[in-house]
Every structure is written in C-alpha cells, then in structure tokens.
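re: that chain from earlier
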Amino acid sequence: AGQTVKEVSPKVISFVRENAVTNEKITVLINVSSENQKIETTDLCGTNILNGEKVNKALVLNPWECAWVKE
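^ sequence. v structure.
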C-alpha cells in the first residue's frame, strides 16, 4: 500500500494509506498534543474504524487520540 503524508495541523500527524489493488483508502490522524484538536477538511469522509463513528468533513480528536478513517 502506498502512503502519503498530509499536513493538517502542527499538533496532528496525518497520513493516507491507499491500496492500489482494492482502491481502499484510510486516513490516519494522530493528535500529538494535550489539547482537543478539531480537524475540518472536505476530503475527510467515511467511518473511523477504531470506534465506528461516521466522519463527514470534520473530526475532533481528544488529547493523544488517533482515528483511522476508511473512505
């Protein structure tokens, strides 16, 4: 699977993993701060496979929380 780093915020590490065979795409977001971080972007839609929550262009990460959003 290919991997691309995304710039979201200085306090959030993010990258996208794409499988060229299945076209599956997962965006990984990691809050590396002790504060909540709100991420808003038009290309973030899908399901957080870690907790089952739907994501539609916005996501709030608690301190040190991560999300894996499958499109």
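The chain has a mean pLDDT of 94.
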